[in-house]
User: Fold this.
Amino acid sequence: MFDLITDHRSNNPDMKKILFSLCFLPFSVFAQSQSDYEQEMAKFVKLYNSSKTDEICAMFGKNPQSDEGCSWEQSNREAKSIDKLGTIQSFKYLGVDKSDPEQVTVFQIHLSKAGTKAMSFTLHSTSSAAAIAPGPYIFETFRFTTTSEEIEKMMKPSRK
Assistant:
């Protein structure tokens, strides 16, 4: 493989591009940006505040091990989130909780009835060409309200 890249006799630039891309493929699959997370959060907030359960469920994708349907629909039906917690008035990106095994991205949210809380999630690209053009995304790990020692540290500067 090394000879293919450095062989000056080869006039096949496409092969070089393919090999170069393959070398960096594992790194680019996990390359969701802060902007990607903020866009998905904004979409979720709009749907949540409008009580659009079906559209929120589409953000979770299908669980192949379960016939029970959408996890958001089940948990929201039991918790009645919007009735108890209120609508999401605002959100702010805080960063990644590196202490969490899932490496979740954390947002501070302000709920109209429950006040300031933390919400965290990870995204998974549904594109078969995720390394080249990531997205669209679905939620992989999702915690509507959450806390941990690390999240509390992240929230402190914002609560002052």
User: Anything to note?
Assistant: Confidence is low (pLDDT under 50) at residues 1-9, 17-29. The chain has seven helices and four strands.
